[in-house]
Protein: Glycosyl transferase
Organism: Marinobacter halophilus
Amino acid sequence: MKPLPSVAIVTPTWAGDLEHFRLMRCSIEQSMLVALPHYVVVQDEDLPLFEEFRSRPGLTLLSTKEVLPEVVERRRAAARKLADRFGRNFTRICGSLKRVFGWPQWPSYTGWHTQQLCKLKLASELPFEQAVILDSDVVVTRSAAITDFTAPAATVCFAEWKARQTLKGKVRNWVAESEALVGAGRLQEKANIYFDTPFVFDRGILSLALKRLEVAASKPWWQVLLDRPPRRWSEFGYYKAFLMYHTSDNQIDWREPNFSRYVYDTSSPEAVVSEVTAMLDDHEVHYITIHSQASGREDWDAAAYLNPLALAIGCDR
């Protein structure tokens, strides 16, 4: 029997995405990706909520305390308490203050940022050639295949190209910050605007990219990123920029993610169930992202569409 490629799945998650994660994990178990090791990193205070998954075959359950540097974990926990206490608007205002005045420090350590560090830490340290990042809001179909992430003599990187002058908002910020971090010279006319999952990290190339940050700044790579303005840097953006400007053309298989679909409006459970069920029957669809709106941004119960979809996939919730 031909050995499996050296690929692992990595998912950072937290309490707010528990129900989405439950659907994602059971969809993996109904697919060919069940053969891959799955590393799940949960914010430490939320770990008891995820204990039910510890016995799943091939799944390794970790807490942020086990993955993040001690100082980062301590500041993450403090940032979580402040964000929970004062809410999203206060957090957003403090983030804006940090970008303009460099203070307060804590918005740089919220879960959105530290999840990115967890992805980079595991992808660069686990004993696998590739790490496939899958967020909790992804549903894996039975058509998914390990070959979605591998190429015979190159590293796969998913790409959607767009003219640089048309970039807007957060995507424009992520691209610009990433190119600055890698010291890009003459900029390419088009930018890769794919920031979704699945996303593939090559361990060897990622390790080189992180080492470049450390050498240039004389500090740990994770500190370099945390020193950047909050919500302006992207782990995927930095890696893609490194591939673009510091690897040869024949090293990278820039692959369009034609097998992915996205659901943005989840306000009608019936519509979500109908749309996703139809996608499950389409062999050209391998991954469906049902964009979760956690932290109180939804005023409806996600279980209204997650439970019927679990039955459609064949999962016992």
Q: What stands out?
A: The mean pLDDT is 93. The CA atoms of residues 79 and 85 lie 10 Å apart. The longest strand covers residues 7-13.
